Task: structure prediction
Amino acid sequence: MTNHYSLPISFDLEAYLKQKQDLINTNLKRIFDTVKRRSAGSLDAAMAYSIMAGGKRVRPILCLAAAETVADGDITATAMATACALEMIHTYSLIHDDLPAMDNDDIRRGKPTCHVKFNEATAILAGDALLTLAFDVLSDRVTASDKKKTAPSMENQLKIIHMIASAAGWRGMIEGQVQDMESEGKKLDIDALKALHLLKTGALIQAAVMAGVILGGGNHRQMEMMSAYAHNIGLAFQVTDDILNVEGDPVVMGKAAGTDFSRSKNTYPALLGMTDSKDYANELIEKALAALSGFNYRADPLRAIAHYIITRER
Ligand code: IPE
Ligand code: IPE
Ligand code: MG
Ligand code: MG
Result:
């Protein structure tokens, strides 16, 4: 995608993403090894299959990056349990999103979807179990990080649990998924489409950033700036997902293209056309970058991630 703005920093995002992905994957694996039954059955296998299938880890990385931007010292150990829980919620949402009753997709993260690899009942239950495991991990004072001294304060922990539950739930991501399903074949206006995208995808991304700010001890002004940043990248993320569904390479994306059109989904390209959709994604990222103008170089990872969100190919 061509950009109207220039990213005023030089930052090795590729190395940064790789380092964070490795860290998150190691910790997710540790959590799964801890909770796995001795003779793991298909539920454990399905959960591990989907979560370790190779997602980009954008939400946990945003949580860590936001925490690092505002924190005084190294906050990674404290933020890691929350970061992992966010990825569990996201992965559960993908397993259910792909089910025959929803988007009916066969490929996700370059592999057969959970219900194709296992079966529908196992996929539903693996999603349920990932969602509840996320709140198990979020509310754990000890085993989440295995180091009691690195746990967030009780107050912050409760705030984060409440915020993530709201964002993922019936007035957040689930409400967005309901609107997505119920509006198939009907034409939404631009305000309704924006509201849908902010819920189905924006809400969890916003919660990921704000959880990081809370964990890092951000002040009120930092909260406001980060909230504006998160709002804009969350929406831009789904606008880009819509764009990629039209012109992305299924092999690179690890999921099918052209499906939004065939299912008569409401998307930005369908409503505005491709050029205006790309312009809009650019505009959102300009706004996200403007929201970060009060931060110094420590917000560079967040700036680079904003840029990545609309230039990614997967
Ligand atoms: C895909 O999310 C679903 C949306 C909410 C748009 P991602 O593009 O973050 O997918 P993974 O986690 O990298 O597979
Ligand atoms: C997925 O949205 C949103 C959630 C899983 C909450 P989409 O259905 O548009 O995403 P993809 O294209 O299947 O990844
Ligand atoms: Mg969907
Ligand atoms: Mg889908």
Notes: The chain has a mean pLDDT of 95. The chain has 15 helices and two strands. The first strand starts at residue 107 and ends at 108. The CA atoms of residues 23 and 196 lie 32 Å apart.
